[in-house]
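Fold this sequence, please.
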Amino acid sequence: MADFQKEKKIVQEYIEEFDNASNSSLSSVLQQYTTQDYYWRGMHPFYEQHGAQNVIDRFWKPFRESFSPVQRRIDIFFAGTNECDNGKTTWIVNVGNFLGLFDYDWLGIPSTGKMTFLRYAEFHRINDDGKIAETALFCDILSVMHQAGHYPLPPMTGAAFLYPGPRTHDGLQYEEQDPSAAKKTMTVLNQMIADLNTLNTNDAERCPPELLAKTWNKDMIWYGPFGIGATYTIDRYQQQHQYPFRDNLYDKVFNGHIARFAEGNYCGFFGWPNLSNKNKGGFLGLPANDTHAPMRVVDIYRREGDKLAENWVFIDLLHYLNQQGLDVLQRMRKINRTELS
């Protein structure tokens, strides 16, 4: 059983050097740590990029120019072999917030000159040569809009606030972990996924709380993406997210994951997309339509005992909305131009 210490060290060294690099040297640092065919996935409007220079030009340089100086504040860090390819690849994930002074407009969002947090989850695949071959960076752009006072969607069903790290303060799994703990964590995760996937074949059936209680603690916390919000306890999770989700969306298809892995009491996955569905009308304020829209989702979990206790979630909601004809960022740019004219 691999202990992932080599791969962890590579990512830790990369983060340290990259985050402390000047804007002019970002490309050279990223090239140093990545393969020539480096493949990067990002949320709308960044999408898929190939090669270090394209990643810098498309995401990092504009972001660093708008939020400066930037701090990376990591709450969760762990590694694992990918269950989706029978353990052929190794992945590392770090989750937390980027913190910066929002001094220049970003993606059409008006700057505030104030401290602003960008929630993120960043996955890296390390190849046999010790290079980063793939990255997936999910970030909550809607949370930045909310902090800037330009929230573009109907009121959230959950609560909106700056989400904390794990309650147990043990999310930074820099040291070697007990492999048996990871196995136990993955077993609980896979059971939960199987239970929910079975429900997706019956759109009319609401999930009974007893089903969730098989794999979730009663006082579970679900830190959902802005647009949906966070919920606490199984009962409120169902009221404030699961039932609105199941009542307003149909024809749900589970497409699987790109990476799913565990270490210690932590596990997670991302898909591209994880699932697709159709909107009956009402979800995120959208009218009913026939578009079978994809959802790109990240879930990061903490296990406590025999069940899941906390869940940090990212959904590329801007992409999901865009697939159904609503480009939130384009609308924001139009509003800004109108206000300035």
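The chain has a mean pLDDT of 95. The longest strand covers residues 90-101.
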